[in-house]
Amino acid sequence: MQAPTRKDFFLQSYDYDLPKELIAYAPTTPRSAGKLLVYKRAQKSIEHVHFSDFCDIIPRESILVCNDTKVLKARLFGRKISGDYQNADSKLYEIFFHKPLESGGCEKLDSKKLDSNKLDSQISTNKSSAPDKSTPRFLVQIRGKVKCGDCIVLDSGVEVRICEILSNGLRVVEFQDSNGGILDFSKVLQLLENHGAMPLPPYIKREANAQDEHDYQSVFAKHAGAVAAPTASLHFSAEDFSALQKRFQTCFVTLHVGAGTFQGVESEDIRAHTMHSESFFIPPQSEAILQKHFNDGALLCIGTTAARVVETYAREGKNSGECELFLHPHNPPRAKFGLLTNFHLPKSTLLMLTSALIGRTETLRVYEEAKKAGYKFYSFGDGMLIL
């Protein structure tokens, strides 16, 4: 790969034009019919195939690393209760669930807690009170103006009480049942499953429907906690993935994809960008595989989230915690791995991660070739395989 240059620092260097007709608003059916661009780093070559060819394209010694996070039905709707707690506002408020305030509520992640110093620095000093550590509280985004002490009543009868106003736009809330009992994370998960709506990527403006619960969830999703899908995983049907597992060794990691995955880069020098934080966990059997193979090139990461877990483990040796890793041409991966990924938004951290593997100018060249060949871009789009 070509050595990075000063131009690789600049945000504008990661911009490109994309015709609207190449944006995918729905997945390809069947999934195996999706287009797959194969890029081989050694030859800098491009080959056009389909996902039905995936098993035959990847090296026989490949070990697939898959993110088995499960997307929550993270969107809830309710009406704000007035000061006398008798009347509800006619306006509908949307509550977008992010994560437990204390990661102790997260499946598989009980060893890691949210950094209290980071949280304290975000709290508006004139609008919040010290959190009660014994009470389950959660980070959410609310569409509509609220203040501390307000309550939003959901159709289920559950009340969402606003406890903290954070300067980053998030809110700290408690969920209370009709008897005043505080809901813990397991009960909030059940609430979301029964009454929530599927989150969709921001570029898709329509309301979610029942089909999205299938289309925006990988067939190997297991551990609930994500609010966005690891989209490279969406290319596999249950039948396709079963065939893969019969031919290739597979290991699973969990990274709960947060809403920050869609966060734009605002700093003109990309090195000044602050990466969002996402909880991750590597089970013992997967850790043994990563420890043995992260430097021999056998690992093939199914998506950027799996790649960031592999690289975090290679650098820090941790099997759980918070992943804040920002890969770009001036911070390339130290581990050796292949990558299956989608075609990403201009000036996004995901485009920069791809550039960390093959270089920025080469990434943009590949994207131009994909555009000419009619590939679909973004979350429901076609795929790119880097070998």
Question: Can you characterise this structure?
Answer:
- The chain is an alpha/beta fold.
- It folds into 2 domains: 6-71 and 207-386, QueA-like; 75-195, no CATH class.
- The chain is 21% helix and 25% strand.
- It has helices at residues 54-57, 116-122, 185-195, 212-215, 238-247, 284-293, 304-316, 349-358, 360-372; strands at residues 35-40, 45-50, 63-67, 69-71, 75-81, 88-100, 138-143, 151-154, 159-165, 171-176, 223-226, 249-255, 278-281, 299-302, 320-323, 337-342, 383-386.
- The chain has a 9-stranded mixed sheet with strand order 2-1-17-16-14-3-12-13-15. A 6-stranded antiparallel beta barrel has the order 5-6-7-10-9-8.
- Strand 1 and strand 2 (45-50) form a beta hairpin.
- The model is unreliable at 103-131 (pLDDT under 50).
What topology does this entry show?
Layout: E1 35-40, E2 45-50, H1 54-57, E3 63-67, E4 69-71, E5 75-81, E6 88-100, H2 116-122, E7 138-143, E8 151-154, E9 159-165, E10 171-176, H3 185-195, H4 212-215, E11 223-226, H5 238-247, E12 249-255, E13 278-281, H6 284-293, E14 299-302, H7 304-316, E15 320-323, E16 337-342, H8 349-358, H9 360-372, E17 383-386
Parallel strand pairs: 1-17, 3-12, 3-14, 4-11, 14-16
Antiparallel strand pairs: 1-2, 5-6, 5-8, 6-7, 7-10, 8-9, 9-10, 12-13, 13-15, 16-17
Helix pairs in contact: 8-9
